[in-house]
């Protein structure tokens, strides 16, 4: 058994104008996970974000949606991790991923940030890349045959067929969340990645 997840961080940008954009896929999943754990998000200024507290197997689980904009996500994550004394290995970050197509998802621990500003900032705030990431595929404008620049692409809403893929991934991530909270990463990874091939 590995160290179970205790802090779940959904990445996105605050404000109604960003709500439906691809870059907010992490927020979408965080909202669903909070519902599944019967937890409610409330703004906590000291942590620069919306925080929800839940219980799983008799243990505390904290969910966070930073309200600092993507490139400053580490500010909120670092503050919460220090307050609750969570190690990087207990942190799971939910984020959009350009290198995966809509309908694909990858769970991984550590590694680089692949130019994702939210991940870069969290890595520097935690002083370690060893946190877990659930990478939710949103596709890349080139692979989707779009002429948009990446910066523009991530700040637009997915098209209907892409949204269907992203929503299916969100459901699959919700299904394995109890395993992640129990530290059963191998089992969760196998289940998630097997369905990518489907």
From TrEMBL:
This is Peptidyl-tRNA hydrolase. Belongs to the PTH family. It catalyses: an N-acyl-L-alpha-aminoacyl-tRNA + H2O = an N-acyl-L-amino acid + a tRNA + H(+). GO terms for biological process: protein quality control for misfolded or incompletely synthesized proteins; rescue of stalled ribosome. Monomer. Its EC number is 3.1.1.29. Keywords: Cytoplasm, Hydrolase, RNA-binding, tRNA-binding. SUPFAM superfamilies: Peptidyl-tRNA hydrolase-like (SSF53178). The keyword Transferase does not apply. TRNA binds at residues 18, 69, 71, 117. One of its GO terms (molecular function) is tRNA binding. The record marks 13 as: Discriminates between blocked and unblocked aminoacyl-tRNA. GO terms for cellular component: cytoplasm. The active site is at 23 (proton acceptor). It is found in: Cytoplasm. Hydrolyzes ribosome-free peptidyl-tRNAs (with 1 or more amino acids incorporated), which drop off the ribosome during protein synthesis, or as a result of ribosome stalling. It comes from the Bacteria. The record marks 96 as: Stabilizes the basic form of H active site to accept a proton. Its main location: cytoplasm.
């Amino acid at each position: 058994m590995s160290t179970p997840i205790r802090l779940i961080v959904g990445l996105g940008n605050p404000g109604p104008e960003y709500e439906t954009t691809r870059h907010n896929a992490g927020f979408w999943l965080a909202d669903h996970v909070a519902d599944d754990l019967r937890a409610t998000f409330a703004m906590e200024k000291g942590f620069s974000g919306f925080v929800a507290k839940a219980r799983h197997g008799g243990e505390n689980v904290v969910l966070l949606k930073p309200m600092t904009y993507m490139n400053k996500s580490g500010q909120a994550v670092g503050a919460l991790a220090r307050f609750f004394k969570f190690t990087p290995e207990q942190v799971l970050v939910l984020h959009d991923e350009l290198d995966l197509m809509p309908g694909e998802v990858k769970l991984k621990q550590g590694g680089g940030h692949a130019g994702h500003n939210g991940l870069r900032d969290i890595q520097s705030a935690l002083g370690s890349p060893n946190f877990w990431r659930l990478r939710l595929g949103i596709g890349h404008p080139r692979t989707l045959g779009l002429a948009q620049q990446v910066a523009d692409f991530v700040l637009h809403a997915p098209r209907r067929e892409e949204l269907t893929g992203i929503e299916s991934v969100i459901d699959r991530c919700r299904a394995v969340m109890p395993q992640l909270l129990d530290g059963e990463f191998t089992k969760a990874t196998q289940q998630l990645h097997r369905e990518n091939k489907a």
